[in-house]
Fold UPF0260 protein MACH16_17700.
Amino acid sequence: MIAKRYEPFWKTTPLEKMSPAEWESICDGCGKCCLQKLQDDDTEEVFYTNLACHQLNITSCQCKVYDTRQAKVASCITLTADQIDQFQWLPDTCSYRVLYETKELPNWHPLVVGNDKEMLRQGLTVRHYAINEQSVDEEDWETHIIKWVHGMPEPYDIT
Ligand code: SF4
Ligand code: SF4
């Protein structure tokens, strides 16, 4: 008799059908969506900076006020499955976006590996390069724009 192959929930359950716990577990905890973003007024293109929201614990990549985040930070966005068609503003390595676009999770994902060691080993969280937004004048934020190449940040000059 051939044993039935076990398929993990992210391969069998669409994002919009996941339980709250499954949905939360798709987040790989990279912290990238907590970096400040700038938007071009003309093209509406979104640019990420290496400036972290002041409520992000940069070492752990955890929000310090997760349960009350939207009351504390007006610009904080809670991701929900009914926004799936708007996921293109997320970093292209964000696991929600990757799963939505490719139907697969990356091979370093904590759900695939069983822990976060591989993503930490590969330097895929913002802890290695983010700095507190409050340490830089807002008029200088443009000089902190980055782009990700294979998940790693590089300075990006938009001029
Ligand atoms: S970018 Fe995506 S995977 Fe990374 S912390 Fe934000 S929601 Fe989670
Ligand atoms: S309030 Fe928390 S979840 Fe929201 S952007 Fe800031 S650190 Fe991220």
